[in-house]
């Protein structure tokens, strides 16, 4: 959290009479703060899911080179299990599908949040001008 | 008036009993004179700290759940995998972790029973379907728990924000009052000066 004091010029720009914080303003500020916190958490999730997706892609590419009859050590839980190539590829594709689905769900949430945040930003800046700082 | 508002706000809580922070509608309702400012700010500070303490606890709980959930998921994945093997299929060859950095091979015959480690040195055998059910319910319970924690965290964030805005407003009020007092003082001094020559 970075706090800053208003500079003298800012204070003049804000004007002598301070804008009263009404209940609805407080609710908006709260919502913005909450969404901001959510945004950070979701960004982390998207990142880790994208990483997982990339890893799965790498593995699939790697397996393109493998022999049909090869047994692949596939990790399930904590142990590696020898499975024929076709079965591994099947498992991989279901996993990839799942990850892609999850990622797009999270991204969608993130987009709604960002939209709401920018709306709130407009409203709050319109009301409080330079007395409020919503940037990070 | 301020008293009743404060009490009503203080009594309200979220579903898990965390109190709602009081909203300062008019600063004058909270601080009537500048002598009250320090006391009120200290009070607000204390409340903010309480919320922050709860926030930290909640973050720790979420971190704990985040650790626990992959473990359940992994076990569930294994159970689901074993389920796909029917009695007729070949034994599977598994390389399992015997200890850190030491892996051993095992031939696993198709099975209808798995053993789940329940903790506290207890392990129980379950039919595969039973194990799946148990693990799924544990996983969904953990997910629910986590979403509750996240809700609380959101709620706490809002209360902390309210308190921060409250603090800023009382502080600003104090600054404005201080300025006004000084101006009044200067004005009266000016008057005094301009008054003497005539008197």
TrEMBL record, chain A:
GO terms for biological process: protein folding. It holds the Pfam family Prefoldin_2. Residues 42-69 form a coiled coil. InterPro entries: PFD_beta-like, PFDN4, Prefoldin. Keywords: Chaperone, Coiled coil. Signal peptide: none annotated. GO terms for molecular function: unfolded protein binding. GO terms for cellular component: cytoplasm; prefoldin complex. Belongs to the prefoldin subunit beta family. Binds specifically to cytosolic chaperonin (c-CPN) and transfers target proteins to it. Binds to nascent polypeptide chain and promotes folding in an environment in which there are many competing pathways for nonnative proteins. Heterohexamer of two PFD-alpha type and four PFD-beta type subunits. This is Prefoldin subunit 4. It comes from Calycina marina.
TrEMBL record, chain B:
It holds the Pfam family Prefoldin. It comes from the Eukaryota. This is Prefoldin subunit 3. CDD domains: Prefoldin_3. Gene3D superfamilies: 1.10.287.370. It comes from Calycina marina. The keyword GTP-binding does not apply. One of its GO terms (molecular function) is tubulin binding. PANTHER family: PREFOLDIN SUBUNIT 3. Binds specifically to cytosolic chaperonin (c-CPN) and transfers target proteins to it. Binds to nascent polypeptide chain and promotes folding in an environment in which there are many competing pathways for nonnative proteins. Keywords: Chaperone, Coiled coil. InterPro entries: PFD3, Prefoldin, Prefoldin_subunit_alpha. The keyword Kinase does not apply. GO terms for biological process: microtubule-based process; protein folding; tubulin complex assembly. Residues 139-166 form a coiled coil. Heterohexamer of two PFD-alpha type and four PFD-beta type subunits. GO terms for cellular component: cytoplasm; prefoldin complex. Belongs to the prefoldin subunit alpha family.
């Amino acid at each position: 959290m970075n706090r800053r004091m208003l500079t003298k010029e800012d204070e003049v720009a804000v004007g002598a009479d301070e804008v009263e914080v009404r209940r609805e303003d407080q609710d908006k500020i709260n919502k913005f703060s909450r969404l901001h916190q959510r945004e950070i958490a979701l960004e982390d999730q998207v990142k880790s899911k994208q990483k997982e997706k990339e890893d799965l892609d790498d593995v699939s590419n790697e397996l393109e080179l493998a022999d049909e009859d090869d047994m692949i050590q596939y990790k399930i839980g904590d142990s590696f299990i020898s499975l024929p190539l076709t079965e591994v590829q099947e498992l991989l594709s279901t996993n990839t599908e799942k990850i892609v689905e999850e990622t797009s769900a999270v991204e969608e949430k993130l987009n709604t949040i960002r939209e709401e945040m920018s709306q709130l930003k407009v409203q709050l800046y319109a009301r409080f001008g330079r007395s409020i700082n919503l940037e990070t | 008036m301020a008293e009743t508002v404060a009490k009503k706000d203080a009594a309200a809580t979220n579903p898990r009993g965390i109190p709602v922070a009081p909203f300062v509608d008019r600063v004058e309702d909270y601080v009537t004179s500048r002598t009250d400012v320090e006391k009120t700010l200290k009070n607000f500070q204390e409340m903010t700290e309480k919320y922050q303490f709860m926030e930290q606890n909640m973050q720790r709980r979420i971190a704990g759940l985040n650790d626990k959930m992959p473990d359940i998921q992994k076990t569930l994945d294994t159970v689901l995998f074993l389920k796909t093997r029917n009695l007729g299929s070949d034994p599977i060859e598994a390389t399992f972790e015997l200890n850190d950095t030491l892996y051993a091979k095992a031939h696993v015959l198709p099975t209808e029973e798995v053993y789940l480690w329940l903790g506290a040195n207890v392990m129980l055998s379950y039919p595969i379907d039973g194990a799946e059910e148990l693990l799924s319910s544990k996983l969904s319970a953990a997910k629910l728990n986590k979403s509750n924690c996240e809700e609380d965290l959101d709620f706490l964030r809002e209360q902390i924000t309210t308190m921060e805005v409250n603090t800023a407003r009382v502080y600003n009020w104090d600054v404005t009052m201080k300025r006004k007092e000084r101006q009044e003082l200067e004005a009266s001094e000016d008057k005094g000066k301009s008054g003497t020559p005539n008197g």
